[in-house]
């Protein structure tokens, strides 16, 4: 099979007119350059070059062959230019999928910087419940996915561990417990509680803690996302335990406190395998990794490639 490197070697020889000069420009030894030409001639089945007074010239067969070879080399240079243009000015679409709350809390700054550099790339964001998110990840219907671990995912995906932090307790600013620096599970016994939906990982882990300690909460509200949970707490309707990246409200309507025993939440970003992901996705993923460093210093290797 004729290789591109052999065609490039032939082009260098014809441009330089000598094997010695061509090998220096090509970055190989003179014997290595000669071998490349000999291998090419073996593949073609005829002599392509002849020496004439110390110079290298094409044979009659070589002239006919080189006409087509030059077209191939020109096409490869054109493809290289197109690829460079795509890297410099990518277009297209990046689809981000996430459980509720992660996108608006974790990566708005990353998206802003990315969009400033690549304004022609459209970003679509879908916030899904955990069950649907796992389906989308399993079916690989996304470019970037954000989720709490563990998640059932195809082994070919690239998983970037963003970090792990303990969940926090949020309380109305005027709640009696708001004066404490740390809230213990026992402190919430019999207190109105705003909970996440039963199918969420956060809900399952919070329930496990209270069940294990045999502490009964007054479960009055069950919400489908963190934002609604925060709004109900801000309205004074109860307390809650939420993801640690919840932003402080502008009106100081609720406060956040450390919760004990600790409920550790681990966050990750999923991507398609290398070779199947666009340059735009790679760049955005790098921004996300940089902007989520605050999630914890105890990170594993920044990129875990599962196979």
What does this structure look like?
This protein has three domains: 4-88, Winged helix-like DNA-binding domain superfamily/Winged helix DNA-binding domain (Arc Repressor Mutant, subunit A); 92-164 and 266-305, Periplasmic binding protein-like II (D-Maltodextrin-Binding Protein, domain 2, 3-Layer(aba) Sandwich), CATH 3.40.190.10; 168-262, D-Maltodextrin-Binding Protein, domain 2. The longest helix is centred in the first third of the chain and has 29 residues, at 60-88. The protein has helices spanning 4-16, 19-26, 30-44, 60-88, 102-106, 108-117, 130-139, 201-212, 226-234, 279-291, and strands at 49-52, 55-58, 92-99, 121-128, 144-148, 158-166, 168-172, 182-184, 192-196, 218-223, 240-242, 254-260, 264-271, 304-305. The chain has 307 residues and is an alpha/beta fold.
Major sheet details: 6 strands, mixed
Number of strands: 14
Return the average pLDDT rounded to an integer: 86
CATH architecture of the largest domain: 3-Layer(aba) Sandwich
Strand order of the largest sheet: 4-3-5-13-6-14
CATH topology of the largest domain, which one? D-Maltodextrin-Binding Protein, domain 2
* Rg, nearest Å: 30 Å
Query: Which stretches are poorly predicted, pLDDT < 50 over at least 5 residues?
Result: 297-307
Total discrete domains: 3
Q: What name goes with the CATH superfamily of the largest domain?
A: Periplasmic binding protein-like II
Classify the beta-strand content into a percent band: 25-35%
């Amino acid at each position: 099979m004729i290789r591109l490197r052999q065609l490039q070697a032939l082009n260098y020889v014809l441009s330089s007119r000598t094997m010695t000069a061509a090998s220096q420009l090509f970055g190989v030894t003179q014997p290595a350059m000669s071998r490349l030409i000999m291998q090419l001639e073996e593949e073609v089945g005829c002599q392509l070059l002849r020496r004439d007074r110390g110079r290298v010239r094409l044979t009659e067969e070589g002239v006919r062959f080189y006409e087509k070879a030059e077209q191939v080399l020109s096409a490869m240079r054109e493809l290289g230019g197109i690829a460079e243009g795509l890297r410099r000015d990518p277009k297209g679409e990046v689809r981000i999928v996430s459980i509720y709350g992660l996108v608006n809390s974790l990566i708005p700054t990353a998206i802003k910087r990315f969009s400033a550099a690549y304004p022609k790339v459209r970003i679509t964001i879908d916030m899904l419940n955990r069950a649907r998110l796992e389906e989308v990840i399993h079916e690989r219907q996304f470019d970037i996915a954000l989720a709490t671990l563990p998640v059932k995912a195809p082994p070919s995906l690239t998983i970037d561990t963003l970090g792990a932090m303990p969940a926090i307790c949020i309380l109305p600013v005027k709640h009696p417990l708001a004066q404490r620096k740390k809230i213990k599970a026992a402190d919430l016994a019999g207190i109105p509680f705003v909970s996440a939906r039963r199918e969420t990982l956060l809900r399952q882990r919070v329930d496990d803690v209270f069940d294990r300690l045999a502490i009964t909460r007054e479960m009055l509200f069950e919400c489908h996302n963190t934002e609604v949970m925060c709004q109900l707490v801000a309205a004074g309707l109860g307390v809650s335990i939420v993801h640690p990246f919840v932003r402080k409200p502008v009106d100081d309507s609720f406060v956040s406190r450390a919760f004990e025993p600790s409920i550790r939440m681990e966050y990750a970003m999923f991507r398609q395998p290398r070779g199947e992901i666009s340059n735009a996705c790679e760049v955005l993923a790098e921004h996300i990794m940089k902007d989520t460093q605050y999630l914890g210093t105890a990170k594993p290797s920044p990129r875990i490639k599962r196979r």
